[in-house]
Design a protein that fits this description.
single chain; about 80 residues; mainly alpha; 4 helices
């Protein structure tokens, strides 16, 4: 069931991101700072942490955010500064 849920979420995001490149993937629509690249980063981090923490009992700190900036993975200015495409 968990794998099926993950598969559906990944397929939906892949469909939404198909054909996007460079700046188009980073573009947000005002007034939001949310982008499809931000969603992809959030999904990757949530999956990584969930599987490591919940299933493997391993420490898995967030890769793209922190307790000081919990939404840094979604924010355009953080994405632009972290990825050089």
């Amino acid at each position: 069931m968990l794998v099926g849920f993950r598969t559906v979420r990944r397929a939906t995001l892949e469909l939404k991101c198909a054909g996007l490149e460079g700046d188009l993937a980073r573009r947000s629509i005002e007034p939001s700072t949310l982008s499809l690249l931000g969603l992809l980063r959030r999904l990757a981090d949530v999956e990584r942490r969930w599987f490591r923490q919940a299933l493997a009992a391993q420490d898995a700190s967030p890769r793209f955010s922190s307790s000081a900036e919990p939404d840094a993975d979604l924010l355009r200015e953080r994405i632009d500064g972290a990825i050089g495409v």
